[in-house]
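Good day; I would like, with your permission, to put a structural problem before you. What I wish to show you is a protein chain and, alongside it, a tokenised description of its three-dimensional fold. Thank you for your consideration; the sequence and its tokens are set out here:
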Amino acid sequence: MALKHLIWAGASAYTAYHLVRNGKELAQLFKDSQLTVEEAGESWRTIQQNLDSIQQQVPALKKAGADLRYRVKLFQKETEAHLAQIPFLQTKDSEHKPKP
């Protein structure tokens, strides 16, 4: 049992020595880690806010998309009607031109 206690005491002393020896570096590392965790939390909150904003805009975007699809179909039908009239107008125009 004494050897086990001696090993634990030695390991504890070694750890304590290195903690004291590198205390400033470890404290700075701990502060840097805390800042990184805080920045990550702030980034997470920003991402959540942006996601909420996007989700609120989805219904309006769907409505705008449906309206745009309707307008495209309407434009295509009007274009087809105008294109169908072009040959008729060309033949009608050529009939009214004076022949040389």
Q: What stands out?
A: The CA atoms of residues 3 and 37 lie 42 Å apart. The helical segments are 2-21, 23-96. The radius of gyration is 39 Å.
